[in-house]
Design goal:
Layout (H helix, E strand, L loop, with lengths): L1 E4 L2 H8 L6 E6 L6 E4 L6 H22 L5 E3 L9 E4 L3 H5 L12 E6 L2 E6 L1 E3 L11 E3 H13 L2 E3 L7 E5 L2 E5 L3 E4 L5 E3 L5 H6 L8 E2 L6 H4 L2 H4 L30 H16 L4 E4 L11 H5 L6 H19 L4 E6 L17 E5 L4 H5 L10 E5 L16 H13 L4 E4 L10 H12 L5 H13 L3 H14 L13 H4 L8 H9 L2 H18 L3 H32 L3 H19 L11 E2 L2 E5 L6 H6 L15 H6 L11 E3 L8 E2 L18 E6 L4 E6 L27
Parallel strand pairs: 1-11, 3-4, 3-5, 5-7, 14-20, 15-16, 16-17, 17-18, 18-19, 19-20, 23-25
Antiparallel strand pairs: 2-12, 6-7, 6-13, 8-9, 10-11, 21-22, 24-25, 25-26
């Protein structure tokens, strides 16, 4: 955390709480207050978090005002002093708050007789006594965070201690008879960042009562490694074999097999018996139907999506009898994206998880009875998106989305991807988190707040930088991908490279140059401001990656339009510059990118493996040519990858001699193919033009997920010999 001077932009915010009846928590580096936490209980892990909350409060008050508040347990408190009570103290009960009556993640603040009470539902999951905060509900932690934000000029901008930024105040005061109490509408938001203070302050609550598998329970219930050899009948029939599509990473199942259904259901019971209240129930990713006769006849319906709905609903009905009070969360994804057609009422123990979520998707459910309501599986971020390791969502999109959650009573969120780019996307995470709690908050105001705390004297310049960046992010189609697409999940690239198209549209050279100049100016202005000294290198690294990647795409686009040896040299140098930048990044064991500088809680580019970093991510993010070229080999062999000519002979004549194409790369350069690159030859007849690719030093399996792309630019140029 950092002791910083209060900027003018925030004086009004704090002064709004000052009046004649205020309680003076600190003034002129002094305070009469003590921070009081409950005495030790039988739950040592929960006690540890309550103590952490008290320590956080004391640190931030000292950072802001210089006043050192003592942290004491209730039995050792000085009864002559006013107190800030944290957690489920005896004093809280005496003041009229019963902790047993608090709802999920409920939290509050009130003042009484000069004392300040910070309270909330504090609960340790009965599943296991884990030490990770994810297995706790820490409502009092949220109350402490709210108190620090309202009265101590503190913001939680990044995970970890360094991301908690406190500005300097002359005094800290709280209105007498102040009351604040809230039950979050969104009970959980699972974002893959491990930081209690950051997540709780910004409404990324964890649900220790919910057993989620990240979207897919069938493979956990019937693991391929355990059953494929011993019980191949459990797996989907494909082309006459019970392989379960074993050549993919996503096993598929024979859902008509009673033993498969029983294993899936027993897994639900197993998790319920571990004292989870809600258990996810969901088919395997990249769903492919079993081709057996029994599956075709299952439930007397043709659609496999309908078969899954019926099967999962039957399991929910069975669970009502076997485990009253427990619930299942059934995913609406892939084959079950559309609602069922054979029924419209679900049992009272069913929650539906929409994947994806949108207003349009929600409308398809308007005539259905869903007693447990909806939760959502979000694709806002993630290095599987077409943007890969470049920014993805605009503040306008996120603000609209948060309002939609509130209007449609969404209770839970699973973020499939989050935190890859805390430099370029950090403001988005912060704004969106705050809008989950209060959808009426303005993105513009929140962005000002973020920049003031994070960049101090460079706040206005960084606001200009982010505004310019977000403006460019509107220059591309915003099309929702089908993440259940098995071709995508199996590693096949789509025929057109949407990721390159996005980079071309959003980041032409003149825009990148403008952004670079703005950022360079901000770096000069922010020098010596502690948070920016640590944060700016992260912003710069992520921007340089964007700059180098977009530059290579732009150079390649220019070359494709006007092929020339000099143009090729420019492309290769651009790719080489990007590769060298990535090669200079520090590596952890396993060739993974680590955290950066003092921000140990922020992993640079989500600590991706080096190979994935070179690809720009995975799935839709993987960049094709020229990023997978072996540039040095091409130069040595004088390969020009565009603008060359090949002679097409009539198919009835002797076959033409094959010609060099280009070294074949399985996403990355393959040294084994340098000696025998792929050859190509062309022929034609009265109806068709044929292109044959001769792949040597490789196997059919190795090239299964790759494609050749052929563009017929000018058919009039095709002449018969």
């Amino acid at each position: 955390m950092h002791k910083l001077f209060m900027t003018g932009a925030f004086v009004f915010f704090i002064s709004g709480f000052l009046c004649g009846g205020d309680l003076a928590v600190s003034e002129r580096n002094k305070s009469d207050y003590q921070v009081v936490i409950p005495d030790d209980s039988t739950d040592k892990q929960l006690d540890r978090f309550i103590k952490e909350e008290g320590e956080l409060l004391c640190k931030c008050v000292k950072q802001a005002s210089g006043a050192a508040l003592p942290l004491v347990k209730e039995s050792a408190m000085d009864k002559s002093k006013p107190s800030i009570f944290v957690g489920n103290t005896k004093a809280l009960a005496a003041a009229g708050i019963k902790s047993a009556d608090l709802k999920t993640w409920e939290h509050g603040i009130f003042t009484k007789n000069k004392n300040i009470y910070l309270f909330g539902q504090d609960w340790n999951s009965p599943v296991k006594h884990y030490t990770f905060y994810q297995y706790f509900i820490l409502g009092s932690y949220k109350a402490v965070a709210v108190f620090l934000e309202k009265f101590v000029a503190t913001r939680f901008l990044f995970p970890g201690e360094e991301g908690t930024i406190t500005l300097k105040l002359d005094r800290i005061r709280v209105p007498d008879n102040f009351k604040y109490r809230k039950i979050p509408t969104i009970q959980y938001c699972i974002a893959p960042v491990d930081s209690a203070s950051y997540n709780i302050a910004n409404n990324f609550f964890r649900p220790p009562w919910y057993r989620t598998y990240g979207g897919h329970s069938h493979p956990v219930a019937v693991p391929k490694d355990k059953y494929l050899k011993s019980n191949p009948e459990y797996f989907a029939l494909s082309k006459g074999e019970r392989s379960g599509f074993s050549y993919t990473s996503h096993a598929q199942y024979c859902i008509s097999n009673p033993k498969v259904q029983e294993l899936i259901y027993q897994k639900v019971l197993e998790e319920c018996d571990k004292k989870y209240d809600v258990v996810q129930l969901a088919q395997a990713d990249g769903f492919r139907p079993c081709e057996c006769e029994e599956c075709a006849k299952l439930y007397g319906v043709k659609s496999f999506g309908e078969k899954l709905w019926i099967m999962h609903r039957d399991m929910a009905l069975r669970l009502q009898k076997d485990r009253p009070g427990k619930k299942v969360c059934i995913i609406a994804y892939g084959p079950t994206k559309s609602p069922p057609e054979t029924f419209k009422d679900f049992p009272g123990n069913v929650i539906i998880e929409l994947a994806p979520y949108s207003e349009e998707v929600l409308k398809t459910w308007k005539d259905y009875k869903i007693p447990g309501g909806f939760v959502v599986y979000l694709y806002n971020w993630g290095y599987y998106q077409a943007e890969g390791l470049t920014p993805k969502r605009t503040p306008e999109f996120l603000e609209t989305q948060a309002k939609s959650f509130n209007e449609n009573n969404v209770k839970g969120i699973y973020c499939c991807g989050f935190g890859e780019l805390f430099g370029l996307e950090g403001p988005e995470y912060y704004m969106w988190g705050k809008q989950l709690e209060n959808p009426s908050l303005s993105s513009s105001v929140l962005l000002d707040e973020y920049c003031n705390y994070a960049f101090g004297p460079a706040a206005k310049t960084m606001r200009k930088f982010y505004d310019s960046l977000y403006t460019r992010m509107n220059f591309a189609e915003d099309k929702e991908s089908d993440w259940n697409n098995h071709e995508l999940l199996d590693g096949k690239l789509l025929s057109m490279s949407r990721n390159c198209r996005i980079l071309l549209l959003r980041y032409p050279p003149e825009i990148i140059d403008t952004l670079d100049k703005i950022l360079s100016e901000a770096e000069k202005q922010a020098k010596g401001y502690p948070p920016a000294d640590n944060l700016m290198p992260l912003v710069r690294l992520e921007f340089d990656y964007l700059k180098l990647t977009s530059n290579a795409v732009n150079k390649f686009d220019e070359y494709r339009k006007n092929p020339s040896p000099s143009g090729l040299d420019t492309v290769i140098k651009a790719v080489d510059a990007r590769n060298k930048f990535i090669a200079r990044l520090p590596l952890l064991p396993g060739s993974k990118i680590p955290s950066i500088g003092k921000y140990k809680s922020i992993s640079l580019f989500r600590s991706l493996p080096l190979e994935m970093m070179l690809d720009n991510g995975r799935l839709n993010a993987r960049l094709p040519s020229p990023f997978n070229w072996d540039a040095q080999w091409m130069l040595e062999n004088k390969i020009i990858p565009a603008g060359r000519k090949i002679t097409a002979s009539p198919s009835v004549s002797p076959e033409p001699e094959p010609q060099y194409l280009i070294q074949y790369n399985l996403s990355r350069p393959n040294p084994a193919l340098k000696e025998k690159p792929i050859l190509v030859k062309c022929s034609w007849d009265d109806k068709d033009l044929y292109a044959d690719f001769i792949c040597r030093n490789t196997t059919e399996d190795a090239i299964n997920n790759d494609k050749f792309q052929i563009y017929l630019v000018d058919l009039t140029a095709i002449r018969k010999n």
